[in-house]
């Protein structure tokens, strides 16, 4: 399969879109945890109950359309290959827990992949909406609409005092996790993140890596999300998170301006060295690739690099992951083979981008 054809089928449409503050905020996500009344929670339910819940969703929602997201397809975890499940995790469409530990788990996935509804993960239902840029309010509106759609067919486990009941006590209440994925290279380069993270934690928010809890912040990408779900409305949680994110955006922009003023030639050298590595290397590990992609994205945002689109970071950070590399290769790869394949894919993708810009410039002439 050619890279171009692979990209057309592999990359979610929202990854190539830009939203508000897309230079720093890569994506916004709302996740709602819900459980169905009269069923035991997934931590203790039987295999028969798990199958019954999946059958309920398959009968009620699979192949049904919800405007503007198109039809929903039901994916059963026990019918997917390990590489296929890994790809879904890498695209942030399902959690590692659903992929690895839920034999009778499933996922309802919209055609445009902006919406995924995980079934029988830690809770019976986890509704997830992904939007480009800083669009938490918009994502919440859609999540609430989907929540209402599902609730017309099932009764939720709900308590008048405590709110939505969940397997983990930290999700009781709204059952909502709001999060944003942010690219913060200047705050890392100026060594401010070590000071900022504890301050964010004190506000009832948490800072995690690219793939959530326990993951590393590869490529200077951080996930900021709420911790408190009880005693606050969904709207208040979103507004509190937005306020902190907007402050982070302002600080990142100031840090970028300071780097340009005080270390311009060093910064430019770093950016173009990283671009050179990505366009010429024959072997590259994921950590080095992520750091180089971060530098190049910063170079695009600052105007040093003009022949590569901003969405390249979103795309290549996904494509360089093990699952995607093996899917593109058509089979399992050893770590050393993945490093070679990763370098090749990145080189090819950047060449495609350069050709596109050359064609655009030719059309303008």
Automatic annotation (TrEMBL):
Query: Sorted alphabetically, which Pfam families does this protein's record hold?
Result: ATP-gua_Ptrans (PF00217)
What chemistry does it catalyse, as a reaction equation?
A: L-arginyl-[protein] + ATP = N(omega)-phospho-L-arginyl-[protein] + ADP + H(+)
Q: Which residue intervals define the domain Phosphagen kinase C-terminal in the entry? A: 24-255
| Annotated control of activity | Appears to be allosterically activated by the binding of pArg-containing polypeptides to the pArg-binding pocket localized in the C-terminal domain of McsB.
Q: Where is this motif: RDXXRA motif of the pArg binding pocket involved in allosteric regulation?
A: 338-343
Q: Which residues bind ATP?
A: 27-31, 92, 126, 177-181, 208-213
GO BP field: phosphocreatine biosynthetic process
* Kinase recorded as keyword: yes
Q: Which domain of life is it from?
A: Bacteria
Enzyme type, top EC level: transferase
User: GO CC terms on record?
Assistant: extracellular space
Tell me which UniProt keywords the record has, alphabetically.
Allosteric enzyme, ATP-binding, Kinase, Nucleotide-binding, Transferase
The record's GO molecular-function terms, alphabetically, read:
ATP binding; creatine kinase activity; protein arginine kinase activity
InterPro entries the record matches: Arg_Kinase (IPR023660), ATP-guanido_PTrfase (IPR000749), ATP-guanido_PTrfase_AS (IPR022415), ATP-guanido_PTrfase_cat (IPR022414), Gln_synth/guanido_kin_cat_dom (IPR014746)
Q: What does this protein do?
A: Catalyzes the specific phosphorylation of arginine residues in proteins.
**Which protein family is named in the record?**
Belongs to the ATP:guanido phosphotransferase family.
NCBIfam families this protein is in?
Answer: PRK01059.1-4 (NF002194), PRK01059.1-5 (NF002195)
HAMAP family, alphabetized: Prot_Arg_kinase (MF_00602)
Q: What is this protein called?
A: Protein-arginine kinase
Q: Which organism is it from?
A: Paranoxybacillus vitaminiphilus
Source gene? mcsB
